[in-house]
From TrEMBL:
Known EC number: 3.6.4.13
Organism: Aureobasidium mustum
UniProt-annotated stretches for the region Disordered: 1-47, 540-562
GO molecular-function term, one example from the UniProt record: hydrolase activity
Residues passing through the membrane, by range: none
Residue stretches making up the Helicase C-terminal domain: 315-468
Annotated family: Belongs to the DEAD box helicase family.
Protein name: ATP-dependent RNA helicase
Length: 562
């Protein structure tokens, strides 16, 4: 990061005022989260929300060398000489001293791409060094991450920080990989000091007493992307995991929650990980959006579903021309795996664009790792993805983010956007919605100033039509569309009949289907669309239905399925 970028980033982070009101208020579509929050852990009394500290970030950012009395010389040398970090990012400046010296528990909020990972790894690694425990004393630091890719990235960053201290070992525990190998790694003779894990796989491992035992001396517990982990999808696993760990008050372990977005439920559940006197440290000034104001955010509103894909292609072509093909590195976010496959197919068949790849939860783990690594290394490429890459992933040099259709919620929009303009770099964003979806930029994202854009999509429409006509998985795409928008139907003010009518328009106009794709009866039931008019209901198929007759699949669409 250059000096002027650092100056800019410092100017942005001036948390001198306490936030007023609730800038993170969730859209109305989040009732399930609300219910889940209220169910909470009955035994635990939620703490009253803690007001954010007013920590003014000085105009001259501290240097890492200013911490030489608190940091191990080898660790400091790695930061300055190997990683070439000189000044601290605002979140590091705001947290490191307190985390290192006072070992406070904290809930920390800072914009995407501003160095939160180092802010939690550094104090935790220093604790590991300070404790100087004999080998085989068990895991000192546990970091929990919502996605596998983010867990791998954090593990890499931890290994980078430990390159001059090779006696300390980092392991990962993530789904989709060989569990036995992970187990051997965690329990190996020379020990595992740092474990980075996703919740489901970690809980699986905790069925093994030996692994549970390896947490007996846990010094630090971190939840990265804390608001996601304390959300409905992960809460139950998380509570079970925490029950398997030593009691937090007795063990005196340090707890840290980090995220760019801190939704209200985070403060309600922070006590699961943090001690009662924890500090809330925010480097986002009151009233300021949690996103980088310098990222130009273009909004394209199209009239019909048929215009979405041509508008996507035209926007990508125009941005690619603006940035230059050699530097154009874009992530295209789609609402579901099937829509990501569809958009990927289209973009792969448009000449003149950088190579496109696709990533979502239904891609095999080995492929996910390969695609992630290739995209990280690429100087020019397109990655079509679902929210599996929305949070935390640090792909260098992403010039553009495209969001096609509604994100799951406001936080998802912010985290997706945060894949560009990281660590002081420039970035651009395009958000494409249809008229019925335009409530989202207008109301849910009302704090954001969008620039209206009108890409010339009429000229690409015939080419897109030819590609779409050849696309085979139309039924699957239709079903995924229906499942996703069913979840947003209330916000769109659609009845079930209207939802189906819009889905059918999408099938005919956007997918070029000759007739409404069939949906198995059981799928209609699972989607809660029994009785809705306009569906083409077909009998349940014996087993796997494939893409042929019915829309196939039938698996509920949740975060895990994306
Ligand atoms: N002090 C620093 N100076 C320069 N670069 C830094 C510094 N600290 C971290 N970085 C780099 O900044 C980039 C972004 O950091 P990181 O991924 O930790 O951001 P983040 O705040 O966790 O983002 P997100 O909210 O998206 O998870 C990384 O490439 C990291 O190596």
């Amino acid at each position: 990061m250059d000096a002027s970028a650092l100056q800019k980033s410092r100017r942005r982070a001036n948390p001198s005022k306490k936030p007023k009101g609730n800038p993170n208020k969730r859209p109305k579509t989040d009732e399930p989260r609300e219910q889940n929050r209220n169910q909470g852990n009955a035994a635990a009394v939620p703490l009253a929300p803690v007001a954010p500290l007013s920590i003014p970030v000085p105009s001259d950012s501290m240097r890492f060398t200013d911490l030489k009395n608190l940091l191990d010389p080898l660790l400091l040398k790695t930061i300055t000489d190997d990683l070439k970090f000189d000044h601290m990012m605002p979140v590091q400046e705001a947290t490191l001293h307190e985390l290192l010296e006072k070992r406070i528990d904290c809930l920390a909020q800072a914009k995407t791409g501003t160095g939160k990972t180092v802010a939690f790894l550094l104090p935790a690694i220093q604790t590991l060094i300070n404790k100087n425990k004999p080998r085989g004393s068990g895991i000192s630091l546990l970091v929990i991450s919502p996605t596998r890719e983010l867990a791998m990235q954090i593990a890499k960053e931890a290994s980078n920080l430990l390159q001059r201290l090779p006696q300390f070992k980092v392991s990962i525990a993530i789904g989709g990989t060989n569990k036995d190998k992970e187990e051997r790694d965690i329990l190996r003779g020379d020990g595992c000091d740092i474990l980075i894990a996703t919740p489901g796989r970690l809980y699986d491992h905790l069925g093994n007493q030996q692994i549970t035992q390896s947490f007996r001396n846990l010094d630090t517990l971190v939840l990265d992307e804390a608001d996601r982990l304390l959300d409905m999808g992960f809460m139950e696993d998380l509570k079970k995991i925490i029950r398997c760990l030593p009691d937090k008050e007795k063990s005196k372990r340090q707890g840290m929650l980090f995220s760019a977005t801190i939704a209200p439920h985070v403060q309600q559940f922070a006590h699961l990980v943090l001690a009662s006197g924890y500090k809330f440290i925010s480097t986002i000034p009151a009233g300021e959006a949690q996103i980088h104001q310098r990222v130009p955010q273009l909004l394209v509103t199209v009239e019909s579903w048929a215009q979405v894909v041509p508008a996507m292609v035209a926007s990508i072509q125009s941005e690619c021309k603006l940035i230059g093909p050699a530097e154009f590195k874009a992530i295209v976010f789609a609402p579901t795996a099937a829509l990501a496959d569809f958009y990927h197919d289209v973009l792969s068949n448009i000449s003149g664009l950088p190579q496109a790849s696709v990533l979502h939860a239904r891609v095999s783990q080995s492929r996910r790792t390969k695609v992630t690594n290739e995209f990280r290394e690429a100087s020019s490429a397109i990655l079509v993805a679902t929210d599996v890459v929305a949070r935390g992933l640090d792909f260098p040099g992403v010039s553009n983010v495209f969001q096609i259709g509604l994100p799951a919620d406001k936080e998802s929009y912010i985290h997706r956007l945060g894949r560009t303009a990281r660590a002081g770099k420039e970035g651009r964003s395009v958000f494409i919605v249809t008229e019925p979806e335009s409530f989202f930029p207008r109301h849910v994202l009302k704090a954001i100033t969008f620039e209206t854009a009108n890409p010339d999509f009429a000229s690409v429409a015939p080419q897109v039509e030819t590609i779409v006509n050849k696309y085979e998985a139309k039924g699957k795409t239709y079903q995924a569309w229906l499942g996703f928008y069913k979840a947003h139907a209330r916000a769109m003010r659609w009845s079930d009949d209207q939802l189906v009518a819009e889905a059918n328009k999408f099938a005919i106009e956007a997918l070029g289907c000759g007739e409404i794709p069939g949906l198995e009866r059981k799928t209609v039931g699972k989607m809660g669309l029994k009785g809705a008019r306009g569906l083409n209901i077909v009998a349940n198929l014996p087993q796997k239905s494939g893409g042929g007759r019915g829309a196939g699949g039938g698996r509920a669409k949740g975060p895990a399925a994306r």
